[in-house]
Specification:
The complex is a heterodimer of chains A (about 350) and B (about 110). Chain A is built from ten helices and nine strands. Chain A has about 350 residues and is α/β, with parallel strands linked by helices. In chain A, α3 packs across α5, α5 runs parallel beside α7 and α8 crosses α9. Chain A starts with 11 loop residues before the first helix and ends in a 6-residue tail after the last helix. Chain B is α+β, with helices and mostly antiparallel strands. The longest helix of chain B is centred in the middle third of the chain and has 14 residues. The chains are: A alpha/beta (about 350), B alpha+beta (about 110). At the A-B interface, α2, β4, α4 and α6 of A face α1 of B.
């Protein structure tokens, strides 16, 4: 028996009931799940500075980023050797300069669009490490900094090529500083989706694209010509980003009827994120104009709303976006209606 | 909570080892490897059990956040006349080289 609901966590009180009344096997499973959930629930909170950036000022000035880019020299030790700090000229190393520029663009987006001063709202230094590992096919946020691999050259280019992926990683830091959505099942998929949302919005803001001009792709600059695909993910049409003999078909879903129950990928956080991704896309396109101004504002305010629990499922998040839309743009406004219709269209219950 | 002890793994035990997570979490790249203990000799089983015991203190059920990759060990076994399983998640940066080799090449040493 699985005690995990396909729609997120079984509430702890039900797990308690199973532990009290179930068979020995059910009790063991429920106890294991409860322990797992309780382990995940603490919010990691705002990031802490790590060793290696002691020479940086404690924080930037409001409106100005404080960046430092480090070179791991193909090793997997962080942060690596500092090669460019705030205000220094380009180095000529494409990965270094792309990371510097992309982190600057992401800072600028959050500052201009939402008045947010870096990851913790208090000018947290933006530390990025490039050339991490040998042909490393990933980028991540480790709770203190961002890390970028060079890719293998066969499937992936270097990860700094993609502005939306760099901003996606920075957004993980912001999400941990705000709602701290646990990285598992539906709250984990919301965590991933919000990173995708603010990743694409950073790119759209940088290019000054309206919602109908944007391609709504994540990682469109990452895949090499050898891959039959256009990106890692499509927010407009989840499940269509690639279909390749080596990589297989993009498995993302975009509707609750296709919700994927899996143990892999922290409970499918990169798979089911297609559902809230598509909801955001639908809302943004329905509202028109620059997506960061209305739909983005609603999603950002929802993320920062203290009422958003860190184990929120899709429905809880959706209801709060409706509330936020009504609060910011009026209860009878077209924006709230667009948000409501978007969630209905992807099958997320609002009651 | 770290799991302290490995269950007794007999002929019926199977091991599924995959690499999970990452911003490019593409299922084909997780390359799950399945090992049936019934197909291993005593020496190979001993090496695998020794490797898994070494992984126990490294297991972190909350790993993966922020697109960090990790190795997922899924053990299915029969104990006390009941099928059971154990899942360990090992953060990539802490994964022993032997575990990575077992996942990558199917070799223990």
């Amino acid at each position: 028996m699985s005690v995990l609901s396909p729609r997120g966590f079984i509430p702890p009180y039900i797990l308690d009931q199973i532990i009290r009344n179930g068979s020995q096997h059910q009790r063991q499973r429920a106890l294991g799940t409860l322990v797992h959930v309780q382990q995940l629930l603490p919010n990691p909170g705002a990031p802490h500075r790590q060793r290696g950036d002691a020479l940086l000022p404690a924080r930037g000035q409001p409106g100005l980023p404080l960046r430092s880019i480090h070179d791991a020299q193909q090793l997997m030790q962080l942060p690596g050797m500092e090669v460019r700090s705030e205000g220094q000229p380009p180095t000529g190393d494409a990965a270094v300069d792309e990371a510097y520029d992309a982190l600057g663009a992401a800072y600028e987006f959050f500052w201009q669009a939402y008045g947010r001063d870096s990851i913790d709202r208090q000018g947290f230094p933006l530390v990025g490490t490039v050339h991490y590992g040998d042909g490393y096919e990933n980028a991540f946020w480790n709770g203190a900094q961002m890390v970028f691999g060079d890719g293998d050259g066969e499937i992936f280019h270097r990860f700094t090529r993609s502005l939306d992926v760099v901003a996606h990683e920075l957004a993980h830091g912001i999400i941990e500083s705000e709602a701290g959505l646990v990285y598992f099942n539906q709250p984990g998929a919301l965590n991933e989706s919000l990173s995708d949302v603010f990743g694409v919005l950073t790119r759209q803001f940088s290019l000054k694209q309206t919602a109908d001009q944007a391609d709504w792709l994540i990682g469109a600059d990452l895949l090499t010509d050898k891959v039959q695909g256009v990106a890692l993910r499509s927010m407009a049409n989840p499940g269509t980003a690639y279909d390749d003999p080596v990589l297989g078909k993009d498995p993302q879903c975009g509707h609750m009827r296709d919700f994927i129950v899996t143990r892999d990928d922290n409970g499918g956080v990169h798979l089911n994120s297609g559902i809230p991704n598509r909801a955001f896309y639908l809302a943004a396109v329905a509202m028109g104009g620059y997506a960061w101004e209305k739909a983005g504002r609603i999603w950002y305010d929802t993320l920062c709303d203290r009422r958003l629990p860190n184990d929120a499922d899709f429905s809880a998040f959706a209801r709060l976006t409706l509330d936020t839309a009504g609060h910011v743009f009026g209860a009878a406004g077209s924006e709230r209606m667009a948000v409501e219709q978007a969630w209905v269209d992807v099958g997320v219950e609002l009651t | 909570m770290n799991i302290k002890q490995l269950p007794k793994l007999g002929d019926n035990a199977t091991l599924r080892l995959s690499r999970q997570g990452g911003v490019a979490a593409i299922q084909a790249l997780s390359r799950p490897r399945e090992i049936e203990f019934s197909q291993c000799n005593e020496q190979q089983r001993g090496q695998i059990c020794s490797l898994l015991e070494g992984c126990l203190p490294l297991a972190d059920r909350a790993t993966g956040r922020g697109d960090q990759r990790y190795y997922q060990i899924e053990l299915r076994y029969r104990e006390h006349e009941q099928d059971d399983e154990m899942v360990l998640r090992i953060p990539e940066e802490q994964a022993p080289g032997e575990l990575v080799r077992l996942w990558d090449k199917g070799e223990v040493y």
